[in-house]
User: What shape does this take?
Amino acid sequence: MDTRFLLDLAILLFAAKMFGVQARKLGAPEVVGEIIAGVLVGPAALGFVHESDFLSQMAEIGVIMLMFEAGLGTDLRKLRKTGAQATFIACAGVFVPMIFGTLLFLAFYGISGQILKALFIGTIMSATSVSITVAALKELGRLDGIVGTTITSAAIIDDVIGMIVLTFLLGMTGGSDENSAVVIGKSVLFFVLAVGTGFLVYKIFSWLDKRHTHTRRIPIVSLCYCFLMAYVAETGFGIADITGAYVAGVVLCNLSDAEYIERRVDISSYMVFAPLFFTGIGLKTSFAAMDAKLLIFSVCFVITALVGKIIGCGSCAGLCKFNRHDAFKIGLGMMTRGEVALITAQKGLAAGLLTSEFFTPVILLILTSSIITPILLKQEYTKYPTD
Amino acid sequence: MDTRFLLDLAILLFAAKMFGVQARKLGAPEVVGEIIAGVLVGPAALGFVHESDFLSQMAEIGVIMLMFEAGLGTDLRKLRKTGAQATFIACAGVFVPMIFGTLLFLAFYGISGQILKALFIGTIMSATSVSITVAALKELGRLDGIVGTTITSAAIIDDVIGMIVLTFLLGMTGGSDENSAVVIGKSVLFFVLAVGTGFLVYKIFSWLDKRHTHTRRIPIVSLCYCFLMAYVAETGFGIADITGAYVAGVVLCNLSDAEYIERRVDISSYMVFAPLFFTGIGLKTSFAAMDAKLLIFSVCFVITALVGKIIGCGSCAGLCKFNRHDAFKIGLGMMTRGEVALITAQKGLAAGLLTSEFFTPVILLILTSSIITPILLKQEYTKYPTD
Assistant: This one.
């Protein structure tokens, strides 16, 4: 067996921990340090570690565990209370950046025959990846507050809406075999089935929990359920695996052992998987093939994407009677982009709607948003602490 | 991303836990249940899960963590006390099964022109893989006793001697570019360097430990050191990665936070990695291509291999003034075979010393020894409890 992956693990975990600690010393969240560690040891700088299937799969487990923990820590009453608002915020979070992105592309590359391409750039901007925000809120101890719950559920809904928009757009260009109605149907079916089986699963776990409280069995079986839901969501229903993991966590969040499960998963997560997810973002970064026009476009793309979410989600949250500071926090929390944006870009490439140079602005957006969101969130929560 | 690996994880972890619990209820060690779970969901029976690079790498991390924990739990005084005896036992553990295996092959397939092949079958028999024994002793709480320490260190030395014998044999057939002297030199160099750098590493960790006792930093950085040593041992010195991991554990075993590190690593290990190692043994099992002669040979091969270790190591332990029961335990503990036997077989295949049908008896040996050793050890320790 080629043991190179062991060296990769040693380098990434060590760098992540060192930079994480330094970031915290400088007053920034630890995840920021871990992402920067990835950039530094990755191909963009030192080149010690490169992406591999193994590392991507470990990173995926990391983000799945993160979202599972977020689900486990959910306060169901708050989730119900914020559900309608979150849906509203999610819609704004999809459509405002989408319009901004479309206009930006048209401004740069002109209108003639480019409408679909422009809409596609807009779609890439619409995809929120909440995992970094979840990690930042967790570090701040604010994940289960009203604002935290709203952001998490809005991001989940955003993901689903984004998927539908993407399918619609690909359908228009023949880049997808499915039509939007099927996608909508599958998404609805997933949530219906998740809630339906969720009650049953919850009953079984409650029974197990009473018989075997605080044994290893409960966290391991819970983790199996989480992996299964992640798999079923992505493979069976075309919904992101992290959404499945989050829903699995929500199903189990009222168990009396929920905290015990979360703690066990958290230790596995912070020892190995989560740092690989954060450094993985850095590993994806490379700055090859950048000319002046693309550079300017990239900078505008990043700014528009960030501002789009703040304006879209923030103003919408304001309309939902969040106060000014909380609305801003929600806008900030929704700014983060991640692998969904990359996947969307890849699909666009496959459908001929995008050329590969546009990966650079997308990666820059992921990196920038992943680094500045936690910093700004921490500042806001320090200045204006709320639930 | 193909999310099939998530389904594999869910199935394997669930099956491992369920069968582990059942095994314990029946009075057998949990690892036995986990191995059987792997056989059952793997290609030999239900075929739900097949081997993959990802699963092999996860399993490798599992066994590395296991050996790291074994190292961390080491009592240095006992290790020093048993060192000479362990070396003696290891030598007997290599050469007695080797002679037995050679004779067995000659008895089945005749002498003419087969001496090298016969010696090679003997070499396969000589390789101890201590990980299953370590897991069983850990479950029994006996890993850090005199018997447990002797078995662990003898198995480590066995591994090194086995490697030298293998290289010698491959060298004779031109199947290896290295010669035995180089292999011996590299092995010695590894241990010299490990001890040399070990003192420095221990000093650094002691200093870190005093400043940051019970923080996440210590276990994570320790794990990085473990992965690094595993990588360096295998890639740089041709020694098994698990030997490197064990040595890393021994270096850190006197830290005041050693138990804290072990606990953290243990949780990551039992939540995900260790069950994947145990079920992985089961996944490797398949019973295709078996004719009557091979079946009979396989059964004899397994019995000879097991008896060879008991006679070799057990009688040698008796000579080292262990009492009858402890000597028998040491013989039992050294019976387990694992991936080293498979790797040896693969090298033999590549060198033309072995045909692929001989993989079946090797796999059977791994499976049988992995299942019966923990059961017998538990029985012996229950009947004749010693340190």
Notes: Chain A touches chain B through 43 residues (CB under 8 Å). The CA atoms of residues 140 and 382 of chain A lie 9 Å apart.
